[in-house]
């Protein structure tokens, strides 16, 4: 009978106790990289039986010793025929050890790599890379061994040659980390790309001269600015000049792969250099900024090393639009903004795999390791709602953060890049003083991103020739490092020397090339040869329709009854055979009744109808938040889940044929990165209603940097429009300090120059018109909407279909039945949920002397609308502002002057009174009984102060 491979292998009895250690070692090598062991052993290990009773879903033989001891002890069960036990020769044992040595270099070779241009980096001792550690000796160096999956040399090589090749591949000026990736195909890809050229391919003269030209530009601009504007802050690139050829090659290679847009995010280090030498900003314009000749007609403007820019360049694959994102000094906060912008551009192009739009994120070493938004952004990178097909990350690794040394204080990890391992991103460490090595890993990184559509990191290890800024004296805190830097030649000088030694150029050539670049700067010429002077405008979005409009711009937000009922039927219909959960079924049935007019509309249905009508009219919608698909308070249910098979159905995706996108995602548990992502998205797609919802409004304070630096000030610093909508559940209902307040006062404090809208809608029709207004108006301003919790099901907080068929969003909302002006002597103004508490008190007391007015838009404050509502009530003697929040919070301090202005129109002697909670350090009481007493008292005060 013909024996199977398994039978043949088992019959060899290699699993006898005497050979167990040998096979264990071989198997351990196999687990790390199956391709690193001979094919017959790989087939053998692939077919190993599992241990009885072990039903783990992963590979059943991960515990090496447990597996082999079990098999060796029970060998007779597995061996069809017994033969004379084979023994493992010394040569075979050494062969396995050679394979283990090869594997050690792949795993840990980067720890011995020559990465620091200054030679100050202290590397740990790596015993695994010593052949003696693996039981080999000097005599073995001249022996030939099988090279396994090694991608250089022959199938058999001398051990000395194997080690020399591994040293050059993994321990020279390139240190590659990829063996932490679980996908064997990826590891094999890197081995093929790295080992075939030993991490140092030979470049032709044209390429080498191009690298030199980029270094000339990088160093030339810094020296020019240093001599022309000595001591002026510019956060120069000196010491990291290799960044310029790196970014330029990413763009050119990305274009050759079909990219049509590339979005770049970076902090201030080297930003001016990238603006001029990569994006093609006219040097003359930069010099004018240094000279103070640029004045802003509107807005505040920003310092030059925070500014963004866009241009088009030509690549081998065609014209590419470049966009450098604006970024404040909060460094890493721009990375999720770039991701959001890229996602929006990909959606516009229907680029589902990320081939046409590419993100490049340039980081500092200290910030990449230290700022949590980096982790949040990496964690988003492979999710379905936030993925962009991979980001190319470049770390400008100065080996120092301002004055903080990485060795003692900046991080706890070996590398600043270690955080990227959480998403199994490959990390390519490279010595910045080896421009050709930088060029090689740049190509490798772009090729990886193109092949696998995942994040990849280039760790450009360099230094900072000057201090944190040009007015800083770094030797005060890093004397040893800067003593070394003062004596260290520049990257360009080192490369020129190399090219001269190789006979590629002469010393005169080098001087000529450098002077030619300086002459261009003197003339104020563009210095990027690939710059397209007459760009293709189809590569970017036209924002002109949204410019120059006042916030009072009108629009039609009402919808015909017939349209509402048709859409209502579609979003309330469940597919045949689709089984939904009992409570959800009741919600959908009630929505059907609301469509027929048999029930009043609740909040969730009016909101859903707003989305349905916008989609019907051709407006895309993107919605994200931690529990947005269901809704934190179980009111939305925009995605239904089949109780039988877990499949999903989103009614809003079935409004009409060829409808625009409707996307709604439950985001990861992040506020900062998620909100920054949506900001970036909204600044790129003005026609889309982009919404981010907080789980509770309180949690938005985790994204305060995004609010301060982008949402509320971006238009005035950078002339960057944004129509982002924030839905922030807010309302005092006894749930404690962290589940009551969306920190209304913080948003109001940031309000100026009509920068944002702050609304507190209290009826379903109001949220319907508010959401539609956000898209239908030509205005693009961020909308901060404080949305309710208990009002989602409040018996009084309802509307009718007629309310949606007529009118618009009302910034001031008087009672449905206005009281007799002759009887009214008390005015209570309020916003939000407290209105319904006041209304209950008004009715229970039978009061006819009180007018309750809701201010539904606190900013921009609706002076004219409030004046119109109050105009008939000339007999008011007492005016009160009532709020649930403590006095030092809420709208009281930020908005009282607006309300006093309105009262002054009625009677200059009227004094505005306050009814609300006392000043408090915390937003709300932690005990329900205390909350109830406070709530009762503030309502009483509104009618008695």
What does this structure look like?
By secondary structure, the chain is α/β, with parallel strands linked by helices. 39% of the residues lie in helices and 13% in strands. The strands form 6 sheets. It has an 8-stranded mixed sheet. A 7-stranded mixed sheet has the order 16-13-17-18-20-19-24, with helices on both faces. The protein has a 5-stranded mixed sheet with strand order 21-23-22-25-26, sandwiched between helices. The longest helix is centred in the first third of the chain and has 24 residues, at 205-228. The termini are far apart. Its EC number is 1.2.4.2. Belongs to the alpha-ketoglutarate dehydrogenase family. InterPro entries: 2-oxogl_dehyd_N (IPR032106), 2oxoglutarate_DH_E1 (IPR011603), DH_E1 (IPR001017), KGD_C_sf (IPR042179), ODO-1/KGD_C (IPR031717), THDP-binding (IPR029061), Transketolase-like_Pyr-bd (IPR005475).
Can you give keywords for this protein?
945 residues; alpha/beta; THDP-binding; Rossmann fold; 5 domains; eight-stranded mixed sheet; thiamine pyrophosphate; 33 helices
């Amino acid at each position: 009978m013909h024996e199977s491979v398994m039978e043949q292998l088992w019959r060899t009895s290699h699993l006898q106790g005497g050979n167990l250690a040998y096979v264990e070692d071989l198997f351990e090598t196999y687990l790390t990289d199956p391709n690193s062991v001979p094919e017959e052993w790989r087939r053998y290990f692939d077919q190993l039986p599992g241990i009885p009773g072990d039903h783990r879903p992963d590979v059943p033989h991960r515990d090496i010793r447990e597996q082999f001891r079990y098999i060796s002890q029970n060998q007779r069960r597995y061996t069809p025929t017994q033969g004379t036990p084979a023994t493992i020769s010394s040569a075979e044992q050494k062969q396995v050890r050679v394979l283990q040595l090869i594997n050690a270099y792949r795993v840990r070779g980067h720890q011995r790599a020559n990465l620091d241009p200054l030679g100050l980096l202290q590397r740990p001792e790596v015993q695994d890379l010593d052949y003696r550690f693996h039981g080999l000796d000097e005599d073995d160096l001249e022996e030939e061994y099988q090279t396994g999956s090694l991608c250089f040399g022959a199938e058999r090589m001398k051990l000395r040659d194997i080690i020399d090749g591994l040293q050059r591949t993994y321990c020279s000026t390139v240190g590659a980390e990829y063996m932490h990736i679980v996908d064997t195909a990826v590891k094999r890809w890197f081995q093929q790309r790295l080992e075939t050229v030993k991490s140092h391919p030979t470049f032709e003269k044209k390429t080498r001269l191009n690298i030199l030209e980029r270094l000339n530009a990088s160093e030339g601009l810094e020296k020019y600015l240093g001599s022309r504007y000595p001591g002026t802050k510019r956060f120069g690139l000196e010491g990291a000049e290799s960044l310029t050829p790196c970014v330029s090659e990413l763009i050119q290679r990305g274009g050759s792969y079909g990219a049509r847009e590339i979005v770049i995010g970076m902090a201030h280090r080297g930003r001016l250099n990238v603006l001029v030498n990569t994006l093609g900003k006219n040097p003359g314009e930069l010099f004018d900024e240094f000279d103070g000749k640029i004045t802003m007609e509107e807005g505040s403007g920003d310092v030059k090393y925070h500014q963004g820019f866009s241009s088009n360049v030509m690549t081998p694959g065609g014209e590419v639009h470049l966009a450098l994102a604006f970024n404040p000094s909060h460094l890493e906060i721009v990375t999720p903004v770039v991701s959001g912008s890229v996602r929006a551009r990909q959606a516009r192009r229907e680029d589902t795999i990320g081939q046409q739009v590419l993100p490049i994120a340039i980081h500092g070493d200290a910030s990449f390791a230290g700022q949590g938004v980096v982790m949040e952004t990496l964690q988003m990178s492979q999710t379905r709602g936030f993925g962009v097909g991979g980001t190319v990350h470049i770390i400008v690794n100065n080996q120092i953060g301002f004055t903080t040394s990485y060795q003692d204080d900046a991080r706890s990890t070996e590398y600043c890049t270690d955080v990227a391992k959480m998403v199994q991103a490959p990390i390519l460490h490279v010595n910045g003083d080896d421009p050709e090595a930088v060029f090689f890993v740049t190509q490798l990184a772009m090729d990886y991103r193109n092949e696998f559509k995942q994040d990849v990191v280039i760790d450009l290890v360099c230094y900072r020739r000057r201090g944190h800024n040009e007015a800083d004296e770094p030797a005060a805190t890093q004397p040893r490092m800067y003593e070394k830097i003062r004596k260290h030649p520049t990257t360009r000088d080192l490369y020129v020397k190399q090219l001269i030694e190789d006979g590629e150029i002469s010393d005169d050539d080098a001087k000529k090339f450098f002077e030619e670049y300086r002459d261009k700067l003197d003339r104020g010429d563009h210095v990027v040869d690939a710059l397209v002077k007459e760009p293709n405008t189809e590569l970017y979005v036209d924002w002109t329709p949204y410019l120059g409009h006042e916030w009072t711009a009108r629009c039609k937000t009402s919808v015909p009854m017939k349209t509402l009922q048709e859409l209502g039927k579609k979003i309330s219909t469940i597919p045949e055979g689709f089984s939904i959960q009992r409570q959800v079924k009741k919600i959908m049935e009630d929505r059907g009744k609301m469509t027929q007019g048999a029930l009043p509309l609740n909040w969730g249905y009016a909101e859903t109808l707003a989305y349905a009508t916008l989609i019907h009219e051709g407006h895309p919608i993107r919605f994200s938040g931690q529990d947005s698909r269901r809704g934190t308070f179980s009111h939305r249910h925009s995605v239904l889940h089949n109780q039988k098979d877990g499949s999903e159905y989103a009614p809003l995706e079935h409004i009409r044929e060829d409808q625009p996108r409707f996307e709604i995602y439950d985001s990861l548990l992040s506020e900062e990165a998620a909100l920054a992502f949506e900001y970036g998205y909204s600044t790129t797609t003005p026609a889309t209603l982009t919404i981010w919802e907080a789980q509770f409004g309180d949690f938005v304070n985790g994204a305060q940097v995004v609010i301060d630096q982008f949402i509320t000030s971006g238009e005035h610093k950078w002339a960057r429009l944004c129509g982002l909508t924030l839905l922030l559940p807010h309302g005092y209902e006894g749930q404690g300090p962290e589940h009551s307040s969306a920190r209304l006062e913080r948003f109001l404090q940031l309000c100026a120059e009509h920068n944002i809208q702050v609304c507190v809608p209290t009826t379903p029709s109001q949220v319907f018109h508010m959401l539609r207004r956000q898209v239908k108006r030509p205005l693009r301003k961020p909308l901060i909407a404080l949305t309710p919790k208990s009002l989602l099901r409040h018996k009084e907080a309802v509307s009718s279909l007629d309310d949606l068929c007529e009118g618009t969003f009302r910034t001031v909302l008087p009672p449905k039945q206005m009281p007799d002006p002759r009887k009214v002597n008390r005015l209570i103004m309020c916003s939000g949920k407290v209105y319904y508490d006041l209304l209950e008190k008004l009715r229970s007391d039978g009061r006819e002397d009180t007018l309750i007015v809701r201010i539904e838009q606190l900013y921009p404050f609706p002076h004219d609308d409030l004046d119109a509502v109050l105009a008939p009530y000339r007999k008011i003697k007492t005016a009160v502002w009532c709020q649930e929040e403590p006095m030092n919070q809420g709208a009281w301090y930020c908005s009282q002057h607006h309300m006093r202005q309105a009262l002054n129109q009625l009677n200059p002697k009227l004094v505005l009174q306050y009814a609300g909670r006392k000043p408090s350090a915390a937003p709300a009481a932690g005990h329900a009984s205390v909350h109830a007493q406070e709530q009762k008292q503030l309502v009483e005060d509104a009618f008695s102060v």
